[in-house]
Amino acid sequence: MELTPEQKDIKNAAREFAEGEMMEIARELDEKQQFDERLWQKAADLGFLGVFVDEKYGGAGLGYLEHSLICEEFARIDCGIAHAITSTFFGTQLISLIGTEEQKLKYLSSVCKGEAKMGVAITEPDAGSDVSSVKTTAKKTDSGYVVSGNKTFITNANRADFLIVLCITNPEAKKKYDRFSTIIVETDRPGYEASKLKNKLSIRCSDTGEVAFKDVEVPKDNLLGKEGRGFYNIMEFLNRSRLEAAGLGIGTAQGALEKAINHVRKRKQFGAPLADSPIVQTKIAEMATLVEAGRSFLYSTSAKVDRGELDHALIAMTKWYAAEIAVKVSDEAIQLHGGYGILEEYDVSHYWRDAKVLEIFEGTKEVEKLIIGRSLLGR
Ligand SMILES: Cc1cc2nc3c(=O)[nH]c(=O)nc-3n(C[C@H](O)[C@H](O)[C@H](O)COP(=O)(O)OP(=O)(O)OC[C@H]3O[C@@H](n4cnc5c(N)ncnc54)[C@H](O)[C@@H]3O)c2cc1C
């Protein structure tokens, strides 16, 4: 798929930013398990945040394809930093889609301009892949809701200014899926508590945490979308946010491939560079083909979503495939580095560690395949 000149410019600008600002600091942030917020500010100043958000609400009025290009280029250098930046507007997809005019004006422009950070809190200790088993409640009061419960694995739990929270508001609804609502909870409200999950395998500089909502009061206006539609809202959100995970996957795979190519060109064994070996050439060929196929898939699916052709099975395929090739290609990149591959200073193990989480969040690869299979089989 041929990108337009403007899309190529965006991709080049994202590459320049990632190479100039992230390359030097990536290993240090991974080791410290800490993000440097100055990178987020610079990304905001350069207009990389929420490019798919309408210009009226502070975005660039572009599409998911442009966002995928940015994710790809950022993750080519470092998936953790990429995630720490792009997750600050994780949820704008949903506010753009179903928010009221007031909510769009209030929340979207602040995150697109880099004045606020957000997140989406779905997962709970006993509700992971099975989103419909969420137990957090939002009890109705005269003025709004009281949110109570616990969430875990929440990106930006300790950084976000507000979260979109999936809660039960209509426990009496006959159909299980009709019991939920999505509610915006500001993190400075009394009763919000968060702690950091440390020593992760992947994307270590990106904040992941546990959240406790201890009877957090929010006004009526914080309801996002209609009561009882929360489960469906989250599915709509994932249909768009999975493209971001896919973009991170393609970038991670591309970065690992480039590391492998550099290494086999330099490393000599049996009196010749490894790159002269037909076995090595075959491996590089296979890796590059996977990346190219995944990239085409990502671009074409993103472009379809931008045209309003939303095929949830195709989106699930794109995310699953991108994550799988990120793991495969970075694994092979370690193999081509031999013993050096498992040393942090050669970076390929870092790519492989980061790639793994892409097969888990935003729907595990098994869940993605269930979505695809059910859709094809009409179940
Ligand atoms: C770094 C990180 C960041 C995250 N950020 C967020 C966030 O911002 N917001 C948020 O809400 N969540 C977030 N998550 C949570 C993530 O979405 C969940 O981890 C994921 O959905 C899987 O849920 P689980 O971990 O409970 O695993 P489980 O659902 O317990 O699954 C365990 C295993 O069983 C498999 N499995 C489950 N059900 C089935 C089935 N029916 N058939 C076959 N196999 C099955 C799964 O595929 C998986 O392999 C994050 C997770 C991580 C690791």
Record the SSE blueprint:
Layout: H1 5-22, H2 26-32, H3 37-45, H4 64-77, H5 79-86, H6 92-98, H7 101-112, E1 118-121, E2 137-140, E3 144-155, E4 162-168, E5 180-186, E6 192-196, E7 208-219, E8 223-224, H8 230-266, E9 268-269, E10 272-273, H9 278-306, H10 312-337, H11 348-357, H12 365-377
Parallel strand pairs: 1-4
Antiparallel strand pairs: 2-3, 3-7, 4-5, 5-8, 6-7, 9-10
Helix pairs in contact: 1-4, 4-5, 4-8, 4-9, 5-8, 8-9, 8-10, 8-11, 9-10, 10-11, 10-12
The site of flavin-adenine dinucleotide (FAD) has 18 residues, from strand 1, strand 3 and helix 12.
Report on this model:
- The protein has 379 residues and is α+β, with helices and mostly antiparallel strands.
- It folds into 3 domains: 5-112, Butyryl-Coa Dehydrogenase, subunit A, domain 1 (Orthogonal Bundle); 118-227, Butyryl-CoA Dehydrogenase, subunit A, domain 2; 232-377, Butyryl-CoA Dehydrogenase, subunit A, domain 3.
- It has 12 helices and 10 strands.
- It has helices at 5-22, 26-32, 37-45, 64-77, 79-86, 92-98, 101-112, 230-266, 278-306, 312-337, 348-357, 365-377; strands at 118-121, 137-140, 144-155, 162-168, 180-186, 192-196, 208-219, 223-224, 268-269, 272-273.
- The strands form 3 sheets. Strands 1-4-5-8 form a 4-stranded mixed beta sheet.
- A hairpin with a 3-residue loop joins strand 2 and strand 3.
- Helix 1 packs parallel to helix 4 (64-77) and helix 9 runs antiparallel to helix 10 (312-337).
- The longest helix is centred in the middle third of the chain and has 37 residues, at 230-266.
- The radius of gyration is 21 Å and the shape is globular.
- The two termini are 32 Å apart.
- The model has no long low-confidence stretch (mean pLDDT 97).
- The structure holds flavin-adenine dinucleotide (FAD).
- The site of flavin-adenine dinucleotide (FAD) has 18 residues, from strand 1, strand 3 and helix 12.
- The site of flavin-adenine dinucleotide has 18 residues, from strand 1, strand 3 and helix 12.
